[in-house]
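fyi for ur records
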Amino acid sequence: MNAKEKRNELLAQKLIQNLKKRHYEAYFCKNTNDLLDRVRQLIPVGSSVSWGGSVTIRSTGITHMLKNGEYKVYDRDDVTTPEDKFHVYRKAFECDYYLSSVNAMSEDGVVVNIDGNGNRLAAQVWGSKHVIYVVGLNKICQDADAAMKRARSTAAPTNMLRFGFNTPCQSDGACHDCLSPDSICNYICVQRMSHPAGRHIVILVDDVLGF
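which gave:
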């Protein structure tokens, strides 16, 4: 184990202890293969599952695994009309498991997420029976203030460039705290704890995942 791997493992173990204090269930995976095994262990066959627009969930192969397994999947990528997408968003509230990443997380376990429509945050905060957060260690910040800055100044502008909407951050990659109707920073959620205890499950991964 090299120095970087050792540092990441130590950080992950610190995070896991802090997350458990905040009533999360938490795990650490060293690579995406371990991650897929962990997700299979956590989600019983036959469960209903959904997810939002997360690059992390797609890039790790989780969506492919679930769609090719014995699960009831609601995937907005499989529908085309606004009405059908809205239906999938609504179904997420009834699902057994909702999968997502986070925009940022502090070393003491505070989660920060930003959303344009609010459907992802609604599912995370209240909707699905269980929420699984898959978090690359690149999203870990020193404290809650740093997590908020990362979410606003790194994750949001990068996602805006991905979606191609008309906002000031498209011109220079920096947050302008804009009031654009195309903004995806309409809803900001700071999650202190998991409630009820154990409803939220965090899987930390020793990898650079998402934005």
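DSSP finds eight helices and ten strands in the chain. thats all i got for now
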